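Hi there, hope your week has been kind to you so far. Do you reckon you could talk me through the fold, stretch by stretch? I've dropped the whole record in just underneath, so have a look:
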Amino acid sequence: MASNIDETSCNEARPPKRASKTLPIIFRIPPLVRERNNFYEPQLVSIGPYHHDSPSTQWMKQHKNQFADDFIDRHHMSKLDCLEELKTLEERARKCYTEDIYVVSEKFVKRLFLDGCFILELLYKLESDENGTLCQPGLGLTTILSDLLLLENQIPFFVLEKLYSIAKRQNNSSTPPLISSDLRSLIKNNLFNKYLQASYMRSSKVINGQSEIHHLLHLFHELSKPSRETNTANDSSAQNNSTALVIPSASRLYESSGLLLQIRDPVGDIFDVTFKDNIMCIPQIVIDSTRRTLLMNLHAFEQHLPKSDRRWTGLMVLMSCIVKNVKDLEILQRNGIVLNLFPSEEEAIQFFKQLNQQIAPDFNSYCFAALFRQLNEYYGRTFTKYKAALMRDFFNNPWNIITVFSSTVALLLSLVQTFYTAYSATHNKGC
């Protein structure tokens, strides 16, 4: 069965009128943000209309056709029936994009079909470890999977659900709620957990088939919800404080206040950061080019969410504050908090600088605002600074400890000897 669909660029059609009450869910990155750091365009595979004609993704068209054939054959489906059912979703799908899509109806539906089939068949091949050109990690698979989580590179999730439900219907299995849960589990297990580090999300997170999901990036965001409430965007004390909350870097926190950074063990989730006494516990964070792109797109996506849901932005604020230079990075690496997969420490420092460049200055509304206030209060205590200076200058190595201890013992012995000498002289004089 051939799925070779004519994908000639077409601007000859105007889109249907957008209903005024319809809110788009697949956004464009503002030009100013894109100019600073362009982590938002696909490198190998385009999904959806925004980057359909991107030169770097044209070679994937033949693979999309092949994957569509494989998906249809795997489930004994009719391509025409799929296209007819997707046609009923066309108007709803067009309204999901912030920009009007100038593509005729037939081609728009066929593109949804190809993109949806490609994603689902890729997941099936990954699940069954099928040997294929695109399923070998050394041949761009990681880049393809990264492309699937770009904010601009999405199709509505209900398109995937429709195609998946047709496949299940052909197999006479699963009711609609179970179909949605099964699809989300398939995506989580074969896209998120296998290739994008499970610690970036709660691996034990229960899949809820009833909640509304907009697209793949939104699903990742939902599955990464923290195990306990850390967001303080609704904290009245944060809202009443107009001063931007920042914290000193890791080296300054240690040298000036004696604060210790430790890796959280066992790891709960990536947002489970705690501060008690003089110890701050942070889960391990793996950094490389793939996760940098993911973080940038999560941050861009969160700008369209309520402040209470901007947890990834909060994490970016935290890490960009405590890592300013190589000295800070070395402290976090030495304690196992940062696992650097970049070729050099300079690239890792650049990673954190790029995080900082993306953040707006409204730090009070971000996750960890309460933690920032606690750290600043601890850092500002005079006694804490004196104690840290004492520990840094006199107790930073065993020889200093021995010297101080010996001096203290000698001083105490001298005081005791002076006391007994004075006491004996007074006693003898009295006799």
